[in-house]
Design goal:
With 222 residues, the chain is α/β, with parallel strands linked by helices. It has a single domain, classed as Glutaredoxin (3-Layer(aba) Sandwich). The protein has six helices and nine strands; from the N terminus they run αββββαβαβαβαββα. The strands form three sheets. It has a five-stranded mixed beta sheet. A two-stranded antiparallel ribbon has the order 1-2. The longest helix is centred in the N-terminal third of the chain and has 28 residues, at 2-29. The protein is globular, with a radius of gyration of 23 Å.
Length: 222
Protein backbone atom coordinates (compact mmCIF):
# COMPACT_ATOMS: atom_id res chain seq x y z
CA UNK A 1 0.00 0.00 0.00
CA UNK A 2 2.77 2.42 0.92
CA UNK A 3 4.71 1.65 -2.27
CA UNK A 4 1.63 2.45 -4.36
CA UNK A 5 1.16 5.70 -2.42
CA UNK A 6 4.80 6.65 -2.99
CA UNK A 7 4.47 5.82 -6.69
CA UNK A 8 1.64 8.32 -7.11
CA UNK A 9 3.66 11.00 -5.33
CA UNK A 10 6.58 10.25 -7.62
CA UNK A 11 4.38 10.74 -10.68
CA UNK A 12 3.38 14.14 -9.35
CA UNK A 13 6.88 15.16 -8.28
CA UNK A 14 8.73 14.48 -11.56
CA UNK A 15 6.59 16.81 -13.75
CA UNK A 16 6.72 19.48 -11.05
CA UNK A 17 10.48 19.17 -10.99
CA UNK A 18 10.73 19.74 -14.73
CA UNK A 19 8.33 22.70 -14.59
CA UNK A 20 10.38 24.23 -11.79
CA UNK A 21 13.61 23.70 -13.68
CA UNK A 22 12.11 25.34 -16.79
CA UNK A 23 11.10 28.52 -14.96
CA UNK A 24 14.38 28.71 -13.04
CA UNK A 25 16.38 28.38 -16.26
CA UNK A 26 14.29 31.13 -17.87
CA UNK A 27 14.96 33.38 -14.90
CA UNK A 28 18.69 32.64 -15.08
CA UNK A 29 18.73 33.61 -18.77
CA UNK A 30 16.98 36.90 -18.06
CA UNK A 31 19.29 39.95 -18.36
CA UNK A 32 20.48 41.26 -15.00
CA UNK A 33 19.13 44.66 -16.11
CA UNK A 34 17.55 46.22 -19.16
CA UNK A 35 19.07 49.20 -20.90
CA UNK A 36 17.11 52.44 -20.83
CA UNK A 37 15.62 54.17 -23.87
CA UNK A 38 16.80 57.73 -24.58
CA UNK A 39 15.15 60.67 -26.27
CA UNK A 40 11.61 62.03 -26.49
CA UNK A 41 8.77 59.72 -27.43
CA UNK A 42 7.16 60.19 -30.84
CA UNK A 43 3.45 60.04 -31.63
CA UNK A 44 2.47 57.41 -34.18
CA UNK A 45 -1.28 58.02 -34.00
CA UNK A 46 -3.86 59.00 -31.39
CA UNK A 47 -2.99 57.43 -28.01
CA UNK A 48 -0.02 55.61 -29.50
CA UNK A 49 3.63 56.59 -29.08
CA UNK A 50 7.01 55.02 -29.65
CA UNK A 51 10.49 55.61 -28.29
CA UNK A 52 12.74 58.03 -30.14
CA UNK A 53 14.18 56.38 -33.23
CA UNK A 54 16.87 57.21 -35.78
CA UNK A 55 15.35 58.83 -38.89
CA UNK A 56 16.19 57.79 -42.42
CA UNK A 57 19.56 58.87 -43.81
CA UNK A 58 21.83 58.20 -46.77
CA UNK A 59 25.60 58.64 -46.83
CA UNK A 60 28.62 57.03 -48.51
CA UNK A 61 31.14 54.76 -46.81
CA UNK A 62 34.88 54.18 -47.27
CA UNK A 63 34.19 51.69 -50.07
CA UNK A 64 32.06 54.22 -51.96
CA UNK A 65 28.89 52.28 -51.08
CA UNK A 66 25.62 53.71 -49.80
CA UNK A 67 24.92 53.70 -46.07
CA UNK A 68 21.29 54.04 -44.97
CA UNK A 69 18.72 52.48 -42.65
CA UNK A 70 18.86 49.24 -44.62
CA UNK A 71 22.55 49.03 -43.71
CA UNK A 72 21.75 49.01 -39.99
CA UNK A 73 18.48 47.07 -40.23
CA UNK A 74 18.29 44.33 -37.56
CA UNK A 75 21.74 45.30 -36.27
CA UNK A 76 23.03 46.57 -32.95
CA UNK A 77 25.44 49.39 -33.66
CA UNK A 78 27.62 52.04 -32.09
CA UNK A 79 27.84 55.44 -33.70
CA UNK A 80 30.15 58.45 -33.38
CA UNK A 81 31.11 61.69 -35.14
CA UNK A 82 34.78 62.47 -35.81
CA UNK A 83 37.18 63.86 -38.43
CA UNK A 84 40.39 62.35 -39.73
CA UNK A 85 42.61 65.40 -39.17
CA UNK A 86 41.61 65.76 -35.52
CA UNK A 87 44.64 65.70 -33.20
CA UNK A 88 42.81 65.79 -29.86
CA UNK A 89 39.89 63.54 -28.93
CA UNK A 90 39.26 61.64 -32.18
CA UNK A 91 42.45 59.49 -32.14
CA UNK A 92 41.61 58.44 -28.57
CA UNK A 93 37.99 57.72 -29.47
CA UNK A 94 38.80 55.56 -32.46
CA UNK A 95 41.63 53.74 -30.71
CA UNK A 96 39.09 52.89 -28.00
CA UNK A 97 36.59 51.81 -30.66
CA UNK A 98 39.14 49.29 -31.90
CA UNK A 99 38.50 47.26 -28.74
CA UNK A 100 34.74 47.38 -29.39
CA UNK A 101 35.35 46.31 -32.99
CA UNK A 102 37.55 43.41 -31.86
CA UNK A 103 35.00 42.27 -29.28
CA UNK A 104 32.13 41.97 -31.78
CA UNK A 105 33.73 41.74 -35.24
CA UNK A 106 32.46 38.15 -35.67
CA UNK A 107 28.86 39.16 -35.00
CA UNK A 108 26.99 39.51 -38.28
CA UNK A 109 24.37 41.69 -36.61
CA UNK A 110 26.81 44.21 -35.15
CA UNK A 111 28.22 47.37 -36.69
CA UNK A 112 30.18 50.51 -35.89
CA UNK A 113 29.12 53.56 -37.87
CA UNK A 114 31.47 56.56 -37.75
CA UNK A 115 30.43 59.82 -39.43
CA UNK A 116 32.81 62.57 -40.43
CA UNK A 117 32.02 66.13 -39.36
CA UNK A 118 34.42 67.46 -42.00
CA UNK A 119 33.14 66.04 -45.29
CA UNK A 120 35.07 68.57 -47.38
CA UNK A 121 38.32 67.00 -46.19
CA UNK A 122 37.21 63.45 -45.49
CA UNK A 123 36.58 62.11 -48.97
CA UNK A 124 35.99 58.42 -49.70
CA UNK A 125 39.71 57.70 -50.37
CA UNK A 126 40.69 59.54 -47.17
CA UNK A 127 38.17 57.51 -45.15
CA UNK A 128 39.42 54.29 -46.73
CA UNK A 129 42.98 55.06 -45.68
CA UNK A 130 41.76 55.97 -42.20
CA UNK A 131 39.82 52.69 -41.93
CA UNK A 132 42.91 50.69 -42.86
CA UNK A 133 44.88 52.64 -40.28
CA UNK A 134 42.53 51.21 -37.66
CA UNK A 135 42.75 47.68 -39.03
CA UNK A 136 39.32 47.68 -40.69
CA UNK A 137 39.09 45.48 -43.77
CA UNK A 138 35.44 44.43 -43.63
CA UNK A 139 31.96 45.97 -43.37
CA UNK A 140 31.68 45.75 -39.56
CA UNK A 141 33.04 49.29 -39.15
CA UNK A 142 31.90 51.91 -41.62
CA UNK A 143 33.23 55.44 -42.03
CA UNK A 144 30.61 57.63 -43.65
CA UNK A 145 30.63 60.96 -45.45
CA UNK A 146 27.92 63.07 -47.03
CA UNK A 147 26.66 66.64 -47.08
CA UNK A 148 27.51 68.63 -43.98
CA UNK A 149 23.92 69.80 -43.27
CA UNK A 150 22.61 66.20 -43.39
CA UNK A 151 25.43 64.85 -41.22
CA UNK A 152 24.95 67.58 -38.62
CA UNK A 153 21.17 67.24 -38.61
CA UNK A 154 21.49 63.51 -37.92
CA UNK A 155 24.03 64.10 -35.14
CA UNK A 156 21.73 66.58 -33.40
CA UNK A 157 18.18 65.41 -34.09
CA UNK A 158 18.78 61.73 -34.75
CA UNK A 159 21.51 60.55 -32.40
CA UNK A 160 21.09 63.45 -29.94
CA UNK A 161 24.87 63.75 -29.67
CA UNK A 162 24.98 67.54 -29.79
CA UNK A 163 22.56 70.00 -28.18
CA UNK A 164 23.89 73.17 -29.84
CA UNK A 165 21.83 74.93 -32.47
CA UNK A 166 23.21 74.86 -36.01
CA UNK A 167 22.39 74.16 -39.63
CA UNK A 168 25.62 72.60 -40.87
CA UNK A 169 26.74 75.87 -42.41
CA UNK A 170 30.29 77.07 -42.97
CA UNK A 171 30.75 78.33 -39.40
CA UNK A 172 29.00 75.38 -37.78
CA UNK A 173 31.14 72.66 -36.21
CA UNK A 174 30.41 69.61 -34.06
CA UNK A 175 33.17 68.13 -31.91
CA UNK A 176 31.83 65.56 -29.46
CA UNK A 177 33.56 62.66 -27.71
CA UNK A 178 30.34 60.75 -27.09
CA UNK A 179 29.26 57.43 -28.60
CA UNK A 180 25.65 56.29 -28.89
CA UNK A 181 24.46 52.68 -28.70
CA UNK A 182 21.56 51.88 -31.04
CA UNK A 183 19.41 48.76 -30.91
CA UNK A 184 17.92 46.72 -33.76
CA UNK A 185 14.82 48.92 -33.88
CA UNK A 186 16.93 52.11 -34.21
CA UNK A 187 16.29 53.24 -30.62
CA UNK A 188 19.06 54.90 -28.58
CA UNK A 189 19.99 52.68 -25.62
CA UNK A 190 23.02 54.46 -24.18
CA UNK A 191 25.59 57.27 -24.34
CA UNK A 192 29.29 56.83 -23.51
CA UNK A 193 32.37 59.03 -23.31
CA UNK A 194 34.60 57.66 -26.04
CA UNK A 195 37.75 59.14 -24.50
CA UNK A 196 37.25 57.27 -21.21
CA UNK A 197 38.50 53.67 -21.29
CA UNK A 198 36.25 52.73 -18.35
CA UNK A 199 33.24 54.06 -20.26
CA UNK A 200 34.24 51.98 -23.29
CA UNK A 201 34.40 48.86 -21.09
CA UNK A 202 30.91 49.81 -19.89
CA UNK A 203 29.80 50.12 -23.51
CA UNK A 204 31.06 46.61 -24.30
CA UNK A 205 29.21 45.24 -21.27
CA UNK A 206 26.02 47.02 -22.33
CA UNK A 207 26.26 45.59 -25.85
CA UNK A 208 26.47 42.11 -24.33
CA UNK A 209 23.45 42.92 -22.16
CA UNK A 210 21.54 44.09 -25.22
CA UNK A 211 22.32 40.82 -26.99
CA UNK A 212 21.11 38.94 -23.92
CA UNK A 213 17.92 41.03 -23.96
CA UNK A 214 17.23 39.95 -27.54
CA UNK A 215 18.07 36.32 -26.75
CA UNK A 216 15.69 36.35 -23.80
CA UNK A 217 12.88 37.91 -25.87
CA UNK A 218 13.33 35.12 -28.41
CA UNK A 219 13.13 32.46 -25.68
CA UNK A 220 9.93 33.76 -24.11
CA UNK A 221 8.20 34.68 -27.37
CA UNK A 222 4.98 32.65 -27.87
Amino acid sequence: MNSKYNYYWLLLFIPALFVGWYFISRKENRPVRYLAYYGPKHALKVNDTTYHFIPDFEFTDQDNEKVNLNTVKNKIYVTEFFFTTCKSICPIMNTNLESVYAAFKDKKDFLILSHTVDPETDSVPVLKEYALLHGVKDKRWLFATGTKPKLYELARKGYLLNAEEGNGGEEDFIHTQNFALIDKEQHIRGFYDGTDSAEVVHLIQDIKLLYKEYDYKTQVAP
